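tool_call: predict_structure(chain=1)
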Amino acid sequence: MKPTTSPPPAAEPVRRPAVRLAEAVYEKLRDDIFAFRLLPGDRFAENDVAERLQVSRTPVREALMRLQSEGLVRGYFRNGWEVVPIDLSRFAALYDLREMIELHAVRRICESPQAGPAREALLAQSAAVWRVAPAQRLKDGLAVAVLDEGFHLALVAAAGNPETDAVYRQVTEHIRIMRRLDFAYGDCIADTYNEHVAILDAIAAGDTARAGALTERHIKDSHAVVQQITIDRLELVRTEMAQHPSAAPSRRKRFG
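tool_result:
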């Protein structure tokens, strides 16, 4: 009888170079957008990016598709790509719509008997993320931005109206570029944790008025901050470009 041997340990999955390259291109373009090295409304072609970063078009296209799914850029058929423009009046209208949807959701979650199971699931799942000691809180602003978006999506979903949920997801995609500026350049991480916990406490207590008031203030404060950050950073970039026009990136090619 032959001695049995243990099977060799499974090899660690190796990330293909193309995958790593697409990730690197994605991170570079995302950083350029958040730092306003690529300005809202800037148009560019895949070839421009590939040439600048010394890569092929394949990882560039993969990175741009990912950025498009995050609402940071949008593609035009045979006419390049565009950093999503920032229209402050449009964003104000979208924030109003966001506020209406979330306040409706909070009221339903607190008052509707049918929302009981969804409310309990929301409280349990959110507690695992937001009810943590200060030392355990994430420090990476963009990572917290992802969690923040998930919290508000879960809040609306818990109200149990799939049509409202679908509309809210669209609103979320449209305002993502502004919301993330707060986490990239603002000082909102501690406030985000604290305010989410306060909203959850009010929902758990069934206090519709307090939950609504906290949610409304949370959204209004966020909007005011991101709008000011946007204005300040755009003004800073434009001033720098006016003072040093030769330093303006040649990649900002316009189409059409």
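agent: The chain is about 65% helix and 5% strand. Proceeding to next step.
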